[in-house]
Amino acid sequence: MVTYIEAASAPYKNTGVIRLYTPEDFAGIKRACQITARCLDELASRVKPGVTTDEIDRFVFDFGMDHGALPATLNYRGYTKSSCTSINHVVCHGIPNEKPLREGDIVNIDVTYIIDGWHGDSSRMYPVGEIKRAAQRLLEVTHECLMRGIAAVKPGARTGAIGEAIQTFAEAERCSVVRDFCGHGVGRLFHDAPNILHYGRANEGPEMREGMIFTIEPMINLGRPHVKVLADGWTAVTRDRSLSAQYEHAVGVTADGCEIFTLSPGGLDRPGLPA
């Protein structure tokens, strides 16, 4: 049975209860989300052949420090970096390192900043120089999956409507949806209820209610949906080594739809994609 609670009355831990936030709360998380979006904007000109993901990660840390924001992933469950950088067949949680990016790579950069206790969580795909048409098409399909999922958000609908919108489009484009990872509630906690599946049926999942805040972050593969986690305990890759892509926004359910908190201030939500 799904339970909802006013966020101010909820304990500071994930108990499986869905928090309902106030308009003032929406303003608070939006501040954190906009710092994250500004960082992702700045990265658009920095992602290029020869740059290492460690350099990108150092920029994410420094940008946060310059804006009074703490990277949420830093020391989270033993993770030692300020961002996740997932290249080509890495689905998510790629760990920044000293290996340089190469012409034709695609990389997802996932950033979450904490400001005044609020978590601003978002990610985007970045092409590294000129990329192949298959990679370009995957980016286009994945971004469209995200936006179709967001369009399904409204009070009274169920979270399964998000998954159905994403799965239907992805599979019609001969791509697959990763099942092993999902979106999640976000706000005062980094990861909270409910889980937001990127596949399913419209009549499944909890009812969406005004005041809910969560991420939508579909991971779409050119090949099969199956993934495995490497020995480092973090890096998830496609089992068939096919390309994978992900875009992520944090959204809040409003009276008549939703508000996207992590929209790019510079209109750069779609790096490498046609306007």
Automatic annotation (TrEMBL):
GO molecular function annotations of the record: initiator methionyl aminopeptidase activity
Membrane-spanning residues: none
Record-listed E.C. numbers: 3.4.11.18
Stretches assigned to the Peptidase M24 domain: 28-254
Keyword Protease: yes
Cofactor: Co(2+); Zn(2+); Mn(2+); Fe(2+)
Co-factor binding comment: Binds 2 divalent metal cations per subunit. Has a high-affinity and a low affinity metal-binding site. The true nature of the physiological cofactor is under debate. The enzyme is active with cobalt, zinc, manganese or divalent iron ions. Most likely, methionine aminopeptidases function as mononuclear Fe(2+)-metalloproteases under physiological conditions, and the catalytically relevant metal-binding site has been assigned to the histidine-containing high-affinity site.
KW Nucleotide-binding (keyword) present: no
Residues engaged in binding substrate: H93, H191
SUPFAM superfamilies: Creatinase/aminopeptidase
Keyword terms: Aminopeptidase, Hydrolase, Metal-binding, Protease
Record's catalysed reaction(s): Release of N-terminal amino acids, preferentially methionine, from peptides and arylamides
Annotated a divalent metal cation 2 binding sites: D121, H184, E217, E248
Top-level taxon of origin: Bacteria
Residues binding a divalent metal cation 1: D110, D121, E248
Family membership: Belongs to the peptidase M24A family. Methionine aminopeptidase type 1 subfamily.
Oligomer and partners: Monomer.
Entry function: Removes the N-terminal methionine from nascent proteins. The N-terminal methionine is often cleaved when the second residue in the primary sequence is small and uncharged (Met-Ala-, Cys, Gly, Pro, Ser, Thr, or Val). Requires deformylation of the N(alpha)-formylated initiator methionine before it can be hydrolyzed.
Protein name, as recorded: Methionine aminopeptidase
Organism, as annotated: Rhizobium herbae
Lineage, top ranks: Bacteria, Pseudomonadati, Pseudomonadota, Alphaproteobacteria, Hyphomicrobiales
